[in-house]
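User: Hi! I have a protein structure encoded as tokens and I'd like to know what sequence might fold into it. I'm fairly new to this, so please keep things simple.
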């Protein structure tokens, strides 16, 4: 089965922040998990380089849009290996192949009769590059996301006849009830559609930084249509000499933040329908990472508000896996949640270092000490067999629905269960009593098998940590067939090095 997962492509008007890392890590966890299951995976991320947000930022800095795009695209590209994103391609919308493919698809939309020339007049946020409808405007004519005053725009544009797709979109939502996930976002998108759709600008006449409209070269495409199409165009040129479109389209999951719901859940399926292309299977909409400000109010972390956690700094202090863990543990994927460096430090100590790190070092240490590193080949304790029963199916089921936090929680319950088991069986006591050798064998074998399984299940979440753990366990099999408790048995282990040393 093919599994194609994407992140939003990020604006290159500023440097990456934790919000960008968040969506990318979420998509990466799904991609890594599906690879474990032997699926044919393609994972795409990249940057959105055209449009007003970038043109304005470049103007402010006194550089050309291309210069700004080159500089910041490099910063996003460098973020990917740092957060251990296993993306198969990194798209830039200034790629010549992308631009040509955008022209090709939108020409089809034009030729299919869904485009007309008209006059646009209305409110516009240059930071969102979004034309706001009356019910999307905050008091004082402000953008509800950026809180800046909206500008009044009036220009002759090419329009996409979105309103004509209302019925087909409603049908899509009826026939694909998990087109948008989680459910409350599905309801939000559907009520937006039911509220009545207005036609939208497909081109901008007063902007030059974009993809030229082939049938009217005085215009460039409205950046959102250029950007959305990246998910489709990338497949045609990501692998030189190969077209992956047949193999991976339609996408399985678009992972996005709730700020761009309208574009992905309404405009995107409509434009695909207009071009005669299949629509994606799912759009997963996650919430905002928020920061508490000085007055105690919670704000969206955003470059325009200047209240961002720098992922590079966090990684330097705590390591990549700690970042990957924290984002999905502290904030439920799909909901909003407040993040802070203080909470970060607490979870690192309490959960990674004390719960997982100690479990790994204690369990391997005990086998090394009491059994010379040889894992006793005895039957496993039924109490743990039961505690792990069905776990891998549960985790797979949750990740099928992109419920990353719940999957991590299910795994973490077993981290705690194993720690409790160690405390209950107290192998260090058993080791003192020569008559209890069999009990000691069973306790050691049962714990270490649990640790092995946790390694397999945590592979998509904590790839670096699991690699270290698996070195000590002498077994690097992270395929899904190894995910069951008792599915494989370890032979020899070595004492694991501390997985989470004290943070600097
Ligand atoms: O909107 N919390 O780009 P963008 C969680 N180029 N996620 C956050 C976040 C936060 N505080 N801040 C940003 C664009 N994100 C367009 C997208 S796609 C065809 C074009 C994440 O740089 C989240 O995924 O503003 C959000 O949707 C995205 O970054 C917006 O990135």
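Assistant: Happy to help. Inverse folding works backwards from shape to sequence: for each of the 504 positions I chose a residue that suits the local structure. Here it is:
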């Amino acid at each position: 089965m093919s599994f194609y997962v994407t992140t939003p492509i990020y604006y290159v008007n500023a440097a990456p922040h934790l919000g960008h890392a968040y969506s990318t890590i979420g998509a990466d966890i799904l991609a890594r998990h599906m690879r474990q299951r032997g699926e044919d995976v393609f994972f795409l991320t990249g940057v959105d380089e055209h449009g007003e947000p970038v043109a304005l930022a470049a103007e402010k800095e006194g550089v050309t849009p291309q210069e700004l795009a080159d500089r910041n695209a490099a910063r996003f590209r460098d973020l990917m290996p740092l957060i251990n994103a296993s993306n198969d391609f990194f798209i830039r919308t200034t790629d010549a192949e992308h631009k040509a493919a955008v022209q090709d698809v939108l020409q089809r939309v034009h030729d299919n009769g869904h485009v007309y020339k008209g006059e646009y007049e209305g409110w516009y946020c240059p930071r969102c590059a979004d034309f706001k409808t009356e019910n999307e405007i905050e008091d004082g004519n402000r953008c509800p996301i950026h809180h800046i005053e909206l500008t009044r725009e009036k220009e002759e544009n090419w329009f996409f006849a979105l309103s004509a797709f209302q019925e087909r979109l409603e049908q899509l939502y009826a026939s694909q009830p998990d087109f948008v996930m989680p459910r409350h976002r599905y309801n939000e998108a559907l009520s937006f559609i039911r509220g009545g759709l207005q036609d939208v600008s497909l081109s901008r006449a007063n902007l030059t930084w974009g993809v030229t409209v082939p049938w009217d070269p005085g215009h460039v495409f409205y950046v959102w249509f250029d950007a959305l199409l990246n998910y489709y165009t990338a497949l045609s040129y990501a692998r030189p000499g190969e077209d992956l479109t047949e193999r991976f389209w339609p996408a399985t999951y678009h992972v996005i933040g709730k700020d761009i719901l309208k574009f992905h859940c309404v405009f995107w399926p409509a434009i695909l329908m207009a071009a005669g292309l299949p629509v994606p299977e799912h759009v997963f909409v996650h919430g905002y990472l928020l920061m508490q400000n000085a007055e105690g109010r919670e704000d969206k972390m955003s470059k325009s508000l200047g209240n961002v956690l720098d992922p590079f700094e966090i990684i330097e202090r705590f390591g990549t896996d700690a970042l990957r863990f924290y984002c999905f543990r502290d904030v439920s994927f799909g909901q909003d949640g407040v993040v802070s460096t203080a909470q970060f430090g607490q979870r690192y100590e309490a959960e990674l270092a004390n719960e997982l790190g100690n479990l790994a070092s204690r369990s391997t240490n005990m086998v090394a000490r009491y059994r010379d590193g040889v894992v006793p080949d005895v039957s496993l304790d039924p109490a743990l067999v039961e505690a792990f029963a069905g776990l891998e199916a549960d985790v797979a089921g949750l990740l099928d629905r992109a419920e990353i936090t719940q999957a991590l929680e299910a795994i973490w319950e077993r981290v705690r269960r194993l720690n409790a088991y160690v405390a209950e069986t107290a192998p260090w006591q058993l080791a003192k009593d020569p008559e209890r050798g069999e009990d000691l064998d069973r306790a050691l074998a049962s714990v270490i098998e649990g640790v092995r399984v946790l390694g397999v299940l945590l592979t998509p979440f904590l790839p670096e940590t699991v690699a270290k753990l698996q070195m000590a366990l002498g077994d690097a099999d992270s395929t899904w067939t190894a995910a069951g408790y008792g599915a494989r048995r370890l032979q020899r282990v070595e004492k694991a090095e501390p997985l989470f040393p004290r943070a600097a």
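A useful reference point when you look it over: Residues 8-11, 19-20, 22-23, 48, 227-228, 230, 256-257, 259-260, 288-289, 300-302 surround ME8 (CB under 6 Å). Feel free to ask if any position seems puzzling.
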